[in-house]
């Protein structure tokens, strides 16, 4: 039985990821098959055949241009429809393939629900909104399943929806689901705007206010952290506090083909793992000079982050995801503040210069990215723990 706003949010994510993605994938594949020219050999179209036939139309859209590396694989590598997410299937069904108007309207509603859930300031959904969303998804899924006309898929999706609504969720499952939901389509997430020389004058009022609010919070955190330290010395602080300020920075690799991006990503992930004491078996095909220079830049980055109490504790492969453990709330806030004000990218300038020493990669750039939803989720976690510890202190004082 759903009891919390966080759990309701997770259940909607499960319905969208597991149910919505299966339905939209099946519908896309049916449309691709139906719309294959009769004289085409082989019949029906393979995904690569379909993409080649519709390349001009796809790249004529904003989404198509932004997603070119994801949609069109490197030369000699087959595109994998299984790697697409719900957003991508919705894009093709709405803008590329021919579907009936009523079907397109349902897909648009599905995409609208997905975007609203993805862009919530906090991963929480109240009971009324949860019930309305579940009802909407139920109606949309029923109509789309009738259109697809696949009995096995209908049974499977109904089972998924029932499990998403009724089965108990473990904490691990909640965390995994939210992580996967927010990582499947990074380009649709709102990036914390970086304020550089070119954009400083046109910075939006919203982001200017966010920058001001973060700076104000940083000033106020001194007293709170002194109280936390006092409580720690008394053994009153919840151990959760040590982990609530963990967050991540995505290091994007730009201005290069997807195969080159993977090569650089693999090299950087391996180097960061080595420097942070994590196992890595990646074989790096780099000259000794280049490897030494890049490794020195990685060491400098790790040391610089550690000196600001935002230690890099691990790294993941998805571009390059640096997992950070900020030892204080102020160090966490300063991380977001540096991103907003364009200072975070300066941490990686030496590394970018080292990468550019590789022949053919002279134009490659590295961009450090943080996301609004990550900011709000981290601050929410931190706020809950601070509140719990403050309440514990008051109860102790009363006792």
Task: Summarize the structure in words.
This protein has 399 residues and is α+β, with helices and mostly antiparallel strands. The chain has two domains: 5-187, no CATH class; 209-395, no CATH class. It contains 16 helices and four strands. It has helices at 5-34, 47-53, 55-59, 62-66, 68-71, 86-95, 101-118, 127-148, 151-166, 171-183, 205-233, 258-275, 288-307, 329-340, 349-355, 372-398; strands at residues 246-254, 310-317, 320-326, 365-369. The chain has a four-stranded antiparallel sheet. Helix 1 packs antiparallel against helix 7 (101-118). The longest helix is centred in the first third of the chain and has 30 residues, at 5-34. The radius of gyration is 24 Å and the shape is globular. The two termini are 36 Å apart. Mean pLDDT is 76; it is low at 185-189, 193-207 and 236-242.
Give descriptors for this structure.
399 residues, alpha+beta, 4-stranded antiparallel beta sheet
Please render the helix and strand layout as text:
Layout: H1 5-34, H2 47-53, H3 55-59, H4 62-66, H5 68-71, H6 86-95, H7 101-118, H8 127-148, H9 151-166, H10 171-183, H11 205-233, E1 246-254, H12 258-275, H13 288-307, E2 310-317, E3 320-326, H14 329-340, H15 349-355, E4 365-369, H16 372-398
Antiparallel strand pairs: 1-3, 1-4, 2-3
